[in-house]
Amino acid sequence: MVMKPEHQARPSESAAPQVPDVNGSRVSSCLEHLKAMELKFKRFLNASQDMRFIVNRKGSFIEINQAGADLLGYDSPEEMLQLESIERLFQDPEDLEALRNKLEEDGYIKDYEVELKRKDGSRFIASITANYWFDTNGGVSYEGLLTDVSELRHWQTAFIEAERQNRELSESEDRIRTLNEHILQMLMLMSHDIRGPLVSIGATLKLLLRGAYGKMDESVTNTVKDLLSRVSQVIGVAEDFLGKAQSVDGSFSRMDLETLDLRQDIIDPVLDELSNDIEQQGILIDNFFGAIPGGTIPVHTNKIWLKAVFRNLFKNAIKYGGKGCRIAFGFQDHGSHYRLNVYNSGSPIPEEHRDRLFTKFGRVQVDGSPVRDGIGLGLYLIKEIINKHGGTIWYEARPDGSDFVFTIAKEKV
Predict the structure, then answer these.
(1) Residue 47 pLDDT more than 70?
(2) Which end of the chain has less Cβ packing within 10 Å, N or C?
(3) Which residues lie closer than 8 Å to 114 by C-beta, 6 or more apart?
(4) Residue 311 CA, distance from chain mean position
(5) Using 50, 70 and 90 to split pLDDT, how confident is the model at 118?
(6) CB-based contact 51:143 (threshold 8 Å)
(7) How far apart are CA 332 and CA 390, in angstroms?
């Protein structure tokens, strides 16, 4: 006997087979992937320090980062997404239309500058780089980057203006330099041309004093002596200006050397030029350093320039020594060169001013007195002259005065 099961499941009652839902799994995976990409994009968008945006063709924001909201003065990107159109951000609406046309014509723009305005109405210059693209639904969007270049443009404008001013200044300096060169040339020419006739006048006055043209009354003799002294002073001024002009010009155009007697040809004529000042100031010419005798010290040098050296040193001694001071000069024979000096009693030059003594246009004060007249070329000039003669000059402070010491080569340099 065959036993039948009490119940046999019908086909309709049997459990449905477990078939994997492939399509649903794929959709879920795609959604998760899209969410991950969106999250990554959001992180990238908000991490940027510059404004990043996506705008549809109607002009509404699709995406914008926090940097963009901050730049334009809005509280959040969400607030900006509510704007109907980005047109309100443009100072001139025509700029937006021009930007669109450029994008659609070329497909992209790079460093396109336009003036924008923030929520509060303040303006700034923006540089925009963007692409024109179609989405999967056939819609048109603009995606790009926007930066504030207002400060950069400000500094560029300032730089251009500075360049223009520098160029004008340089051109002005060139004109002034050319003018100064002409003035110096005229001054040198005038000093040279004046000196010649003055020397002839001085020679004639000396002949008058020697009786070459007959005997003169005492009053006339005194007048001629005074006139000779004044002419000598003017000759010294002409020679000084000739030297100073060539010193400022940066070159001694010509230095003809000759063998001279230091006392007779150089020092005595200079003291004669300054005799009136020495007498009026009650200055004593002291020989305690050992005076320079005449006829025994030949030097191979330029007469005008070496006279300029002693003239400036004696003038400084008179000026800064003051009334009743003592002035002395002397020399030592050191074989290949002479060591010479000009001393004046009075207050030494303060130590803090000594480094400027031989600089061009350097001027100093003594005892807090006001700076004296002049352009500060005297000591610089004589330093240049002495260097040309193979020597050097320096200052020595003494307890009771100042001593300027210099060397000069015996032989031709």
Answers:
(1) no
(2) N
(3) 90, 95, 99, 125, 126, 128
(4) 36
(5) very high
(6) no
(7) 16
